[in-house]
Batch of 2 targets.
Target 1
Amino acid sequence: MEPLTTSEALEKPAIRIESHLGEAEERSLAEDVLDGLTRPFKELPPKHFYDSRGAELFDRICELPEYYPTRAERTILTQSADEIARLTAAVELVELGSGTAAKTRVLLDALHTAGTLRRYVPVDVTESMVRACARELTGEYPGLEVHGVIGDFERHLDRVPPATGPRIVAFLGGTIGNFPPGSRRRVLREIAHLLGPGDHLLMGTDLVKDPNVLEAAYDDAQGVTAEFNRNVLRVLNRELDADFDPDDFEHVALFDREHEWIEMRLRSRREHTTLVRELDLCVHFDAGEELRTEISAKFTPERLEGDLATAGLSLVRWLTDPDGLFALTLSRRAELS
Ligand code: SAH
Ligand code: AVI
């Protein structure tokens, strides 16, 4: 059984927020930690980075000179938002992993100007982000309804409300790249099932480029990405009563040329054992042992089209920035086109 849904009308009737994170979410963290930290090669899924501190650190990453994806995607959106609004005639925008919805405003502006926009549906695991973004956007766009879904887009896509007209499902920032190839296929297939005949998926993906540029984007000079990476240990300390010392771990970011993805890891500076009290689990780290915390896949046009096709999606538009750093794709369910 899925956890109980708490649905509440907030201060403004235009806002509805539903939370699907409860005990099950705590269980998911516990299961991921138990599973991931007892493997021969230790690993944790990246969704646990994003408590409110992690979300703030991610926002700071987006402003860093080395982290080009946010700027490149914003450039594409600015160039193409009117065309996207015209092609989709969307009355609603569902956004997966919406965060602060900073770039989303470019799209909302275009849909608002086109006169079609009625509803925005942000879906994110970070509760504070969904609530703040609902408050801000209803203030910024008169008449806009916001139906926020606090949940995990790997488990709660069935909680996205039914469409009220043509819609765009946006999955921006390159977050699809944070899934390894097998899960990526599954997630894309599930997302494709949110699309009806008049709907479009708008997805951002980072492109393969010079490894030096890529590695700098994930290992910035100010050390913000390093703090973001170590933040997952603070989440474990708080949520599972663990006793990690984040300073025991060095931030590592490297481009895996074979798989064409960035890997972020935490490398233990010394041999030590950590206790995760909630799980009654002792975790031993050798000096130099690494824990993988994220992959961030970089795409070629061919690979991306292949992934879309496997999910039953057909490409409508391929959009990129003048430097060819990042891509936005607009696609539809092939069988419904
Ligand atoms: N779309 C924004 C934010 C990207 S950061 C942008 O382009 O800048 C990734 C976002 O996805 C974060 O807000 C994080 O909380 C959310 N997220 C990560 N894994 C998730 C999951 N499994 N379910 C729902 N949200 C998730
Ligand atoms: C959210 N995601 C697409 C970011 C990325 O680039 O893979 C997360 C991130 N990790 C380090 N910096 C940013």
Target 2
Amino acid sequence: MAETLLYEGKAKQVFTTEDPDIVLHRFKDDATAFNAEKRGSWRDKGRTNAAITTALFGYLETCGIATHFIEQVDETTIKTRRLEMLPVEVVTRNVAAGSLAKRIGYEEGTTLRSTVVELYYKSDALGDPLLNWHHFRELGVSDEDLEFCEELGLKVNAALWPFFDERGVILVDFKIEVGRGADGTLLLADELSPDTCRFWDKETGDRMDKDRFRRDLGGVEDAYAEMLKRITGGETL
Ligand code: 5GP
């Protein structure tokens, strides 16, 4: 396949293919946090995140949620539709943690009265700030697209909350991204993995996500492997 590197992110590379509407996402073992101030890497991270994203996007498709995902092509690579990305990160939260706990002065672990959806401006230079609709309008994002983002966050949450609950995991929060295909339709894009979600064990409250890396809690490799096992029902790498 004629592959050219189109984009290199902190944890992924995106390659073109012979089909202009299709790209490959290769998941790397690298990790960054705090706007790339902290860097690390661990074995099997790319393989684990590729397998988890494949399983979760496949599940969401069965729930009627349209995504960019086409198929997994090798251990670390998925094939997707090529999209024009909205400059928005949609964060959906069930339990207060991370920046929300700080912003509104809640103790981490407080269950929220109702699901909170937040829209962040995807800009490394600005550190991905939380913006309101007025700001996004100023930046040229339409109300229609913002509404789609918020509704998609809620739909994905409604599908994933029970999925994880059945597997003994609290879906604390997660980040998704949205892009527009050549035909104009908006689709769920990017990835869903322990890099982009907070997963807490229902029984012990143990963190099974990237916070283990961000907060130097140790056991990050095992936590990702455990999440893969819970999601795929026993499959390990
Ligand atoms: P917080 O705003 O509390 O730091 O993050 C909320 C949720 O969104 C967490 O699950 C976090 O992993 C995810 N998230 C927010 N921004 C980013 C980002 O730039 N990169 C990644 N990988 N995840 C993010």
